[in-house]
Design a protein that fits this description.
12 strands, alpha+beta, five-stranded mixed sheet, three-stranded antiparallel sheet
Length: 507
């Protein structure tokens, strides 16, 4: 088996250095320098200013704020957050300078994502030939066709009992780790643990012993403990798949044999991407509910009514229809705290026409673009002047609300809102994410009331520091450790105090 490149640690940080003018000399001559004149950009002078932009991007990337930097570039160098923008960037797939075109125009975002489904190779060094990172369209279609079956409404209803039991257990665990309400709890760490447990127990059918043994290892690997550590976990997971009977395990065992790079890449995807974004979304939701007590009480009243009607009957996806306000809370969290703020990356399979600063601009086939979610989801032109506020009662369109209709789930997707990106290359685990978030919230909000830790204030979270790729809050009590001296770590933290509640008092 080939030796996988280590992008989990800081070993490659020296290769990422942008602090020398030699990088300009190595600039890809095939890049489209002329586009800087017809697409909005912070670059005017192609020497010193160009290098300054690169330095800023590297600096912000290290602390998980490149999405904020991109948004600020749009704010100050464009006519608005709906403008597309071009900036210099370092392509980590080959460590060469390139042009990064951020697509923020809502019309362009939707059309390009749906049509140009070939992935930019930026993630291949990390995730190899996984379903997310493969650049081969045939290869992707083949994997997608098989794996999507595991996340159908029929399969998800079959795992509902397992997921419900774990969600009930997680409520008990929450009280235990808080020392019966005496200690503050890192909800980020808690939710990352629980969403991974949900994935392993329900979708893979792993034993509880295996889940408990390996639950935290993949996060430690991404937090900086190294390639060998990550690889050890990934192959343990793959071996366990062969002995398990969860929907995802069955499909992986039945499909044609994968190459080593496919297996390894998908193991990382299912173990990391399969829980990280969901865990952070739940974290931000509890943060907002803890900060806005009236919203928390309103959601608790809905949860109490749900359990009053449900009683001891087994939960199915159809029962989630009785949780319209919870759905709005989840959607608003996905908007305000976009799970993957930097969006998705595409290689144009044909010439494309996009909106430039003075009219339409032709972008040639083969150009790499990035569909930038963060600015669209926080654009006051699209959402109103209260765009930075958590407001579950804001006006969402029908196609921006998750619902369960018949034998299909309908996930949010519009020109201004695409938390799971657009079909056909949207998030494969979106349906399971919607299920597990509701089950966990139903159980913890039934039993507990959440108060924000005094040190966690609004100003800290305005910065939205993230863990390289997904929107995890900065751990204010443990911001740096021995493994994360370069990039901001994958350890995230949001601390609350919990109190047992009397359901009747909130009816």
């Amino acid at each position: 088996m080939e030796k996988y490149r280590d992008l989990f640690t800081e070993k490659n940080i020296s290769q990422l250095s942008l602090y020398h003018s030699d990088m300009l000399k190595k600039y890809n001559k095939k890049s489209n320098k002329h586009l800087y004149n017809i697409i909005s950009s912070p670059v005017k002078n192609y020497d010193e200013e160009y290098l300054t932009i690169l330095k800023n991007i590297e600096k912000q990337s290290k602390i998980g704020k490149d999405h904020i930097l991109f948004k600020n570039y749009q704010k100050y160098f464009c006519n608005g957050l709906s403008d597309n923008i071009i900036i210099p960037f370092l392509d980590t797939s080959n460590f060469a300078l390139t042009d990064l075109i951020l697509i923020s125009n809502p019309d362009d975002c939707e059309r390009i994502t749906e049509k140009h489904i070939k992935k930019n190779p930026i993630f291949k060094p990390l995730l190899h030939d996984s379903i997310i990172s493969t650049t081969s369209l045939d290869h992707w279609k083949d994997q997608r066709l098989d794996l999507v079956q595991a996340f159908s409404p029929l399969e998800l209803n079959s795992v509902m009992e397992t997921s419900s039991k774990r969600a009930n257990k997680c409520s008990e665990l929450l009280w235990k780790i808080s020392d019966k309400g005496k200690e503050k709890i890192n909800m980020s760490e808690f939710f990352l643990n629980e969403t991974m447990a949900q994935l392993q127990l329900a979708m893979f059918g792993f034993s509880n012993d295996f889940q408990e043994e390996t639950n935290k290892k993949i996060r430690d690997a991404f937090g900086g403990k190294g390639e060998g550590y990550a690889r050890e976990y990934a192959f343990k997971l793959l071996n366990e798949v062969k002995k398990s009977e969860g929907p995802l395990s069955v499909i992986l065992n039945e499909r044609k044999p994968l190459s080593d790079t496919e297996e390894y890449g998908n193991a990382l995807i299912f173990s990391f991407a399969g829980h990280d974004t969901t865990g952070h979304t739940l974290t931000w939701l509890i943060y907002e509910l803890s900060k806005n007590q009236s919203w928390q009480r309103k959601l608790q009243r809905e949860v109490d009514h749900f359990w009053k009607v449900q009683q001891d009957k087994k939960i199915t996806t159809k029962d989630f229809k009785r949780l319209p306000f919870m759905t709005r809370c989840i959607m608003e969290t996905l908007r305000l705290h976009t799970a993957v703020p930097n969006g998705t990356y595409r290689e144009l399979i044909d010439d494309e026409i996009i909106q430039g600063k003075n009219g339409k601009v032709k972008i040639p086939k083969g150009t790499y673009v990035q569909i930038f979610n963060y600015s669209r989801h926080l654009n006051p032109e699209l959402w109103g002047e209260d765009v930075d506020d958590f407001n579950p009662d804001r006006e969402f369109k029908d196609n921006e609300i998750w619902n369960d209709e018949g034998h299909a789930f309908y996930n949010p997707s519009s020109k201004r809102f695409s938390p799971f990106t657009y079909a056909p290359r949207d998030c494969i685990g979106k349906n399971f994410a919607q299920l597990e978030m509701r089950l966990i919230l139903l159980n913890i909000l039934k039993n507990y009331h959440f108060i924000l830790d005094e040190k966690q204030n609004q100003e800290i979270f305005k910065n939205h520091e993230i863990n390289r790729a997904t929107m995890g809050p900065m751990d204010i009590y443990n911001p740096v450790n021995e493994f994360n001296k370069g990039f901001r770590p994958f350890n995230a933290g949001m601390y609350v105090k919990i109190f047992k509640r009397n359901m009747r008092s909130n009816l």
